Automatic annotation (TrEMBL):
GO terms for cellular component: plasma membrane. K(+) binds at residues 111-112, 220-221, 317-318, 434-435. Keywords: Cell inner membrane, Cell membrane, Ion transport, Membrane, Metal-binding, Potassium, Potassium transport, Transmembrane, Transmembrane helix, Transport. Belongs to the TrkH potassium transport family. The chain crosses the membrane at residues 38-57, 69-90, 136-163, 184-203, 236-255, 276-298, 334-362, 395-416, 455-480. This is Trk system potassium uptake protein. It is a multi-pass membrane protein. InterPro entries: Cat_transpt, TrkH. Pfam families: TrkH. It comes from Chromohalobacter marismortui. GO terms for molecular function: metal ion binding; potassium:chloride symporter activity. It is found in: Cell inner membrane. The keyword Cell membrane applies. It comes from the Bacteria.
Length: 482
């Protein structure tokens, strides 16, 4: 393992990330909110640190191996989250503690959307923009961006790409060259963001709100520039636009690329993961709306609007809100929260365990039932027309096992910190699924949690964003052997 090359790459990436603090400086000067100095200092510290890592190792050149990619990815996301917290600590408003600033920074970059802030409407515009920008950058992944725009790194980009793209089938490439693949992903991501911005703006949002919410919508993030989230606008048109882009952004970007390249919408309809995802969403939305209607929680129109929006928002792990779903009747709050465990499609910016994994687990369960009926028969697991290899099937079960073990471990830590069962359970589930809103004491915000719980959730967000094994592999002795 070449640590000099790794330091050089992390230094370059940190310098690149420091430049993302320029837009908030511009926003601060436009709105005269007097917080530009916090971003200038944050930029200076981040760029200088990156330069100190890069300059002594600038001549280090070596092809990266897969495990180098794992280490770079985890190091960079950790470093990025820490340095991303600097403006939040340095700004006079909100003037967060180190723990709270790190929590907010990691929540943004991992597109979790859990916040410790209250009074969001009163925050400086530059801080609001910065939070939204963090989610947009984290949505597709800074590492993939680096592979797309820094081919002069002199590394094997596939090692970074495979550790960053979510899903069980990470070796699938859209184009023969990995740099072109990363660029294709970002072109689609940017195009969706621009389209979403224009739709929000035409529907009545200000240009500032439209930019901010397009960032967090396409990133499946959930941060908002208002305490009331999307509910602040009280607009059916804006809610429908948001629902549409939440669903679109929850689909595989590889699938979007195939449709764009071949100009055939049929690719959506024949994709098994897409079909399962849409059916799952339709059932969840139908049950939610029906329950709200039968219970008389809202009138017909409002029940339809709120039921549709909240079901899609939670199931896609976006986390926007137009109503407090935690006080809805019966099993609805828990049902919607469980829906977030399924999450978005693989190859998207969304969280959860990913639709394809749940589909594979269900198909393998059905296969075992068929084996009980026909013990001597040989059954294979297929997704569409593709037969799933035993290696992929084992990886899915391995992921599920590791997920549950981590969930229980972190749940015990939160319970030990003094939280009640509902709050602890939903907080861990929300962080690990990169969802944001929770139940109980974290239904509104996470500001009142003890520091031990916040740091535990920061780790959970990282595990959720990098899909567990990218981090766990670093704790195995075999990883560090030559």
């Amino acid at each position: 393992m070449s640590f000099l090359v790794i330091m050089r790459i992390v230094g370059l990436l940190l310098m690149m990330f420091s430049l993302t603090m320029v837009p908030p400086i511009v926003i601060s000067l436009i709105f005269e909110d007097a917080t530009w100095d916090a971003f200038v200092i944050g930029l200076g510290i981040s760029f200088t640190t990156g330069a100190l890592l890069y300059w002594p190792t600038r001549h280090a050149r070596r092809e990266l191996r897969t495990r180098d990619g794992f280490l770079i990815t985890v190091m960079f996301w950790s470093v990025l989250g820490l340095f991303g917290s600097l403006p939040l600590m340095l700004a006079a408003d909100p003037s967060l503690s180190f723990t709270d600033a790190v929590f907010e920074s990691f929540s943004g970059l991992t597109t979790t959307g859990a916040t410790i802030l209250t009074g969001i409407d009163l925050l400086p515009e530059s801080v609001l923009f910065y939070r939204q920008q963090l989610q947009w950058l984290g949505g597709m992944g800074i590492v993939v961006l680096a592979v797309a725009i820094l081919p002069t790194l002199g590394i094997g980009g596939m090692q970074l790409y495979r550790t960053e793209i979510p899903g069980p089938l990470k070796d699938s490439k859209l184009t023969p060259r990995i740099t072109e693949t990363a660029k294709a992903l970002w072109y689609i991501y940017a195009a969706l963001t621009l389209t979403c911005f224009l739709a929000y703006w035409l529907a009545g949002m200000s240009w500032f709100d439209a930019i901010g919410h397009s960032f967090s919508t396409v990133a499946i993030g959930g941060f908002s520039t208002h305490d009331a989230s999307i509910g602040y606008f009280d607009s059916a048109a804006i809610e429908l636009i948001c629902v549409f882009f939440m669903v679109i952004s929850s689909l595989s970007f590889g699938l979007h690329f195939a449709v764009w390249r071949e100009k055939r919408l049929r690719h959506y309809l024949v994709d098994p993961e897409f079909r399962f995802f849409i059916i799952f969403l339709a059932l969840l939305v139908s049950i939610t709306i029906a329950t709200l209607f039968i219970s008389g929680t809202y009138d017909d129109t409002l029940g339809l609007r709120h039921g549709l929006f909240e079901a899609v928002s939670i199931a896609t792990t976006t986390g926007f809100g137009v109503a407090d779903f935690t006080v809805w009747p019966g099993v609805l709050p828990f049902m919607l929260f469980i829906g977030a465990f399924v999450g978005a499609c693989s190859g998207s910016a969304g969280g959860g365990m990913k639709v394809i994994r749940i589909l594979l687990i269900l198909k393998q369960g059905l296969r075992e039932i068929h084996r009980l009926i026909h013990p001597n028969a040989v059954f294979s697991v297929k997704v569409g027309k593709m037969r799933i290899s035993s290696g992929v099937a084992e990886a899915v079960w391995g992921f599920f096992s590791a997920y549950m073990l981590l969930f229980v471990l972190m749940l015990l830590i939160l319970l030990a910190s003094g939280l009640d069962q509902v709050t602890a359970w939903s907080a861990v589930g929300s962080a690990l699924n990169n969802l944001g809103p929770g139940l109980g004491g974290v239904a509104a915000h996470y500001g009142e949690m003890p520091d031990l719980a916040k740091w535990t959730l920061v780790v959970a967000m990282m595990f959720g964003r990098l899909e567990i094994f990218t981090i766990l592999v670093l704790f195995t002795p075999a990883f560090w052997r030559r």
